[in-house]
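To fix ideas at the outset, we first show an illustrative case, written as a sequence plus integers encoding its fold:
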Amino acid sequence: MVNLGVLSGLSWRASLGAARKAIVQRQISTGNREVSGSLRGHRQEFASDLTGQIIRKDNGMVSRSVSVLHGDAVKAYGRLNRILAENDIRRELKLRERYEKPTYKRQRLRRESHARRFKDEVRRKVHLIYRMSRWGL
């Protein structure tokens, strides 16, 4: 069984660039060349914020385990990618990379809501047409 820390691992990598920028800016502003442990501290702080939002009671880790059967890591990676795609994890992480103003967030949520309703209506109409064709109409 291979435990792949999906949420925390991808989030750390997504915030790594921001952490490096912050360290460089701190070095420039303070003139200090030695900023030890700042990146590690930023990672831990970011991970604790993330797990504070989504936490499991048993061990506090947020991850997804995908079993590797018969040493076939490619299939396990494919299953993991399918899980990520079904749950929109990558989209969530992309949205969390930058601050989204409340106005734009409301607009985005409204657009997504309308798109979901439209998709649901189209699905119902197609199902109705399918049933009518089965009835012979």
